[in-house]
Design a protein that fits this description.
Layout lengths: L2 H4 L7 H5 L7 E6 L2 E6 L4 H16 L4 E5 L3 E2 L6 E2 L3 E5 L8 E2 L3 E8 L5 H14 L4 E6 L6 E7 L5 E3 L6 E6 L2 E6 L12
Parallel strand pairs: 4-7, 8-9
Antiparallel strand pairs: 1-2, 3-6, 4-5, 6-8, 9-10, 10-11, 12-13
Length: 192
């Protein structure tokens, strides 16, 4: 058992967290000042994140990039999170982590074993408090898969859509993108 796992649920400072050894079998975050240890996801979750990143990268300009499982540095009681995907300036890819004010889109993917309340309520509230303009929550447990879009308003609060299925067209970092939610999992589709 690593030192990170031994401390799960106990209070942890940012300095202690940043000093933890790398643990490739778990995702470590700080939630409400406590160490949160999650099993690394596999299967449809990873496939969906990778396919979404590829889809976004094909549509976004070169100066923006979609990055999977890139650690976010936030303000507030949960200063270290790992969204399933973030979109930010491609220059950020050389950093150890991305600051909340550098993120244009944060994506959480809900799948079996994960806390839906964390993905639908807690994390969006934290992302709004950090000024992240848009958050998407993609639910792979729904059939068909669904997307809830959270958009930051002038008061710093998110407004969210009813779950969207099928195809979604919206704006990320000032650029229009279209996502086919059904293409995020399942057999790979051949390009024409």
């Amino acid at each position: 058992m690593s030192s990170g796992l031994a401390r799960e649920g106990l209070p942890i400072s940012i300095e202690e967290f940043d000093g933890l050894p790398t643990d490739s079998s778990h995702r470590l975050e700080i939630e409400d000042g406590r160490l949160l240890v999650m099993i690394r996801l596999a299967g449809p979750h990873i496939k969906a994140a990778r396919r979404l990143a590829n889809c976004l990268d094909e549509q976004l300009p070169d100066e923006l990039e979609a990055m999977v499982e890139f650690e976010a540095e936030l303000t507030g009681p949960s200063p270290r999170r790992i969204p399933d995907l973030v979109v930010c300036s491609s220059e950020v890819g050389d950093q150890v982590r991305v600051r909340g004010d550098e993120i244009l889109l944060a994506v959480e993917i809900v799948s079996p074993g994960e806390s839906a309340a964390r993905d639908y309520i807690k994390k969006p509230a934290e992302y709004a408090a950090n000024g992240i303009p848009t958050t998407w929550v993609i639910d792979l447990q729904e059939n068909p898969h669904s997307l809830t879009v959270y958009t930051l308003d002038d008061t710093g609060q998110y407004h969210f859509t009813s779950p969207i299925t099928g195809t979604y067209t919206g704006v990320v970092g000032g650029h229009e993108v279209t996502i086919d939610l059904s293409a995020l999992t399942g057999p790979r589709r051949r390009r024409s």
